[in-house]
């Protein structure tokens, strides 16, 4: 099969065995320039093995991978790829500026790019401090700065928010958005489901070495046909009447929980509206990414 120029990363029918143990089975996934894809899966699902194969750190038993049109592990593929591991490691005796300057030189970048990158990830004020005095979150941000060196066609981010506080997580996703806007294909392996729900274009879910889902959140939700949850708050003393009219489950003295499918939602809202002032408030909760993840991984709701 010829490489599709619209895809920066192509993984095709990929398999990996260690002896008799099959850890990846026929994985097929593509990431286009500017696309942000979340890679989800329990520990042992095969995410780390897939990333190692894309990086060329190990070789597939079957199938193939193309990184910006090049073979994994080749000089061209390494030049085209940015990688942020979950556990970053740097020389503790170097300052942040010294360490990133070393990486810039190795990447063929001018040292003048270093301070703007450190400022961009919020490390400018600590640039002259030794890395051994930094927190885990600061070291993670330095890893992100390293990944931003040069223009990369593909970015592999393994648990990128590990060790980051909420504000730093927000800043990191803003940088990921900027990378994607500049044409980088971004693959994010993470367990932070709530964060990823609004931050990615597509969701890929792995289970026991297989890819069990790969689509937009909206299409995965439609295919799963999981119920929307509706919680009604009734006027004082009216919860029994609301339940009698609509069914559902009483939660406390004044609330009733309902469930409906997507195609039933408007009809259910019409019935609720018909009760008038008896209903004081309505809260709707469509299926979350966590619900979909559990569904496609074969777990009960």
UniProtKB/TrEMBL annotation:
<dbReference type="InterPro" id="IPR003439">
    <property type="entry name" value="ABC_transporter-like_ATP-bd"/>
</dbReference>
<keyword id="KW-0813">Transport</keyword>
<dbReference type="Pfam" id="PF00005">
    <property type="entry name" value="ABC_tran"/>
</dbReference>
<dbReference type="InterPro" id="IPR051782">
    <property type="entry name" value="ABC_Transporter_VariousFunc"/>
</dbReference>
<feature type="domain" description="ABC transporter">
    <location>
        <begin position="9"/>
        <end position="233"/>
    </location>
</feature>
<keyword id="KW-0067">ATP-binding</keyword>
<protein>
    <submittedName>
        <fullName>Putative ABC transporter ATP-binding protein YxlF</fullName>
        <ecNumber>3.6.3.-</ecNumber>
    </submittedName>
</protein>
<dbReference type="GO" id="GO:0016887">
    <property type="term" value="F:ATP hydrolysis activity"/>
</dbReference>
<dbReference type="GO" id="GO:0005524">
    <property type="term" value="F:ATP binding"/>
</dbReference>
<keyword id="KW-0378">Hydrolase</keyword>
<dbReference type="InterPro" id="IPR027417">
    <property type="entry name" value="P-loop_NTPase"/>
</dbReference>
<keyword id="KW-0547">Nucleotide-binding</keyword>
<dbReference type="InterPro" id="IPR003593">
    <property type="entry name" value="AAA+_ATPase"/>
</dbReference>
């Amino acid at each position: 099969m010829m490489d599709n120029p619209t895809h920066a990363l192509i993984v095709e029918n990929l398999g990996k065995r260690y002896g008799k143990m099959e850890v990846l089975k026929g994985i097929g996934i593509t990431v286009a320039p500017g696309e942000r894809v979340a890679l989800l899966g329990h520990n042992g699902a095969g995410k780390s093995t897939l990333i190692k194969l894309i990086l060329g750190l190990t070789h597939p038993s079957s199938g193939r991978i193309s990184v910006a049109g090049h073979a994994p592990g080749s000089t061209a593929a390494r030049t085209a790829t940015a990688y942020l591991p979950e556990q970053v490691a740097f020389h503790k005796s170097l300052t942040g500026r010294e360490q990133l300057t070393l990486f810039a030189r190795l990447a063929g970048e001018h040292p003048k790019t270093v301070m703007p990158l450190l400022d961009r990830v919020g490390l400018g004020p600590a640039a002259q401090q030794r890395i051994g005095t930094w927190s885990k979150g600061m070291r993670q941000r330095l890893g992100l700065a390293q990944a931003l060196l040069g223009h990369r066609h593909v970015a592999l981010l393994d648990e990128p928010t590990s060790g980051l506080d909420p504000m730093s997580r927000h800043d990191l996703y803003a940088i990921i958005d900027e990378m994607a806007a500049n044409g980088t294909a971004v693959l994010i392996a993470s367990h932070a489901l709530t964060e990823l729900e609004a931050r990615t274009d597509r969701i890929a879910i792995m289970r026991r070495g297989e890819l069990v889902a790969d689509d937009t959140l909206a299409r995965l939700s439609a295919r799963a046909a999981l119920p929307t949850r509706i919680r009604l708050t009734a006027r004082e003393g009216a919860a029994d009447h609301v339940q009698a009219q609509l069914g559902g489950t009483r939660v406390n003295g004044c609330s009733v929980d309902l469930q409906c499918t997507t195609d039933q939602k408007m009809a259910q809202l019409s019935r609720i509206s018909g009760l008038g002032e008896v209903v004081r408030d309505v809260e709707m909760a469509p299926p979350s990414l966590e619900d979909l993840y559990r569904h496609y991984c074969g777990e009960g709701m």
